[in-house]
Batch of 4 targets.
Target 1
Amino acid sequence: MFIGNQHLVKDFKGLVKNERLAHGYIFFGESQVGKFSFALSLANFLETGNFGSDGKMLSESLIIKELGIDCVREIKNFLWQKPQNSSKRTVIIDNADSLTAEAQSAILKITEEPPEHSLIILIVSNLNNVLPPILSRLQKIYFSRIGKNEIRDFLIKSLGIKKDKAEELAVLAYGRPGRAIELINNKE
């Protein structure tokens, strides 16, 4: 469920269509603004042609939540395999700004000479916690907060929340759709 920052959807669809997608990106911005959801939607688009998460298991994507040395080997092995259902093999590393210096150094080695058909996406909240050499090798994409009305409309149309409740949740979300969904789940 990706909402907001629709200019990025258009931009990335164009990059894919024109075969101009970079080998790696850092998606950064506050937490709960849709960075991870966008990364999954992009991986889905590369594999199925649909921008958005449609619940399908993606065979050409590897999602990393915690990075250890064994995981680095897995990433290397995964990226060097030729994609079968997509133009890219995609690795998404969530909370990459919390990785140790050693783990970031291992990622750096992968980004120095990535396979032609690979895509690495690091999800971070704080760019200051990412090693400068990684920052210089990957393109940075900023995700901003989303307007209250857009969050409200999403809650009403996609999640079936009543208008008054959706308005309240949109205000409490402070521009972060993930926060609105968290509030809904916490009240249940």
Target 2
Amino acid sequence: LWVDVMGAVCNLGYLPSLPEARLLLPGKSQAKQEALALLAAFEADPLVVHIRAGDILDGHNRHYIPTSAALVHRAAQATGRHLLFIGQLEDSELTRHLRMEFSDASFLYTGSAAVDFEMIRQAKHALLSTSTFAWLAAWLSERNETILLPRKGLFNPEGAPEINLIDCSDARFQFIIE
């Protein structure tokens, strides 16, 4: 039994069960410890907001849509939690706008995909970018209580019916719209 994480598997029916996937993808111990230490620096469990930027900002793939400030505002309003932005936070128009719009939030650029993955996996509350990377981290998590999915791009059942990454029996997953 194995999981090809380099391929485009966007259907739960093609993946092993969640318990099997957790055994196959236990994560890196060092990245997990670093993520837990970073999360522990916050008094209350923050809403970890994963930002995907970089290659998706040019709009070349309709399934990958940048996270908007409006969506983050809705998530912040719904959860009432401190915002902790992680991910591709390198300088871009998107990140400059988010930093200006959410000046009271925390922005943590780890520079490590493994640590970002574990930050999502170890957080209790997460707002995912339209990203299979973020989705996989949240799906594998044993700590996530709330996983907010933007109802757009690859997480929009009407716009991408060929993609099925939502286990409707998993109460952690909730759609959020702008």
Target 3
Amino acid sequence: MLERIWSGWRSTYVAGAPARTEPSTAGADPAVSGSVFTQLLNSGAPDDETYIVHRGSTCFVICNLFPYSIGHLLVVPYREVADLDGLSTEETADLWATVADAVRVLRHVYRPDGLNVGLNLGRPAGGSVPDHLHVHVVPRWTGDSNFMAAISNTQNLPEALVDTAAKVRAGWSAVASGS
């Protein structure tokens, strides 16, 4: 049974939280600007070193450096936008078409039992990069959560990130190139 704890004082806190409209610069290196995604794009490093697996017209796809499971991808607009309503019509169409391609690629490469697709908009919603929206596309398998996560807060990922990126990149060429 779900227990509820009333904490009416939280409404004052939530209602008073400042709205974020400008990209955060707190803790940023003054010589480097933008989100971690923008910094990565501006680094000049090759895609195989940055784990970028696809580049589209307005967005790109990268392997998550801290994956929930193997094949965990992020679909990210090139332009720093904090929320969906900040995207142009072209960016919106390209973002969702790329998400659909990512789903097809992951189904082809990993044959998961299911997938999670979602966004965390804003830090309170779990957004770790709240000023640059990104869509998570996560393959899931029946029983992929086990005692390791439950009792030791540990995840077992059976594939190196470089191998995941290579497989997804090859899968993208095979599956999504015609879309």
Target 4
Amino acid sequence: MKKLYALAVVTLLTTSLFSQNNPLINTPALSPNGQTIAFNYQGDIWTVSKNGQNLKRLTIHEAYDANPIWSKDGKTIAFQSDRYGNNDVYTVNSEGGTPKRITFHSSNDAVTDFTSEGKLIFNTSRNFVQVERAPEIHSVNAKGGTPFRMLNTVGFDAKLSPNGKFVALTKGTCRIDREAYQGPANRDIWLYNIENDTYSQLTNFQGQDFSP
């Protein structure tokens, strides 16, 4: 609850730092210690203290950098950027520095989690794109290396549980802006049990459930 309150407060504070005509602050992410928030503003990654001070611009690029995800130790921020024509996953030191490109595939990669083991989880369409509409869930070492498919099902928005035993994910292919749609493509939340190698559906709402 304290983190949710801090996230709401810092979002309001960071908005006030900019012109009232440009309050376009997106995808805020609270640091593990609850003291700093990372966010996207006008296509770059920024950080600011929870009291609205110490504003820092971490990336400066004509491409669109978005969706910051903190490492568990708070030293690194992962994000995605279309610097080479499609979204790839990058990392940057949370205090600033030169971003490092982690993925190099021609498909769009969207980072969703940064595990305590130093791995990045991301959505992509590499293996099943010829037969499936939905993306797949892959992982890669945050220092770089070869990505591997993490789950044997399609899905996205994957988050590893704090105890490392489960993966929450979204399944479904309907666009979230189709609010009135009710059908087999609805998005639902699923849970993968790593130890038992089993999947269970957590939601069955006839609308859209997503972003666990």
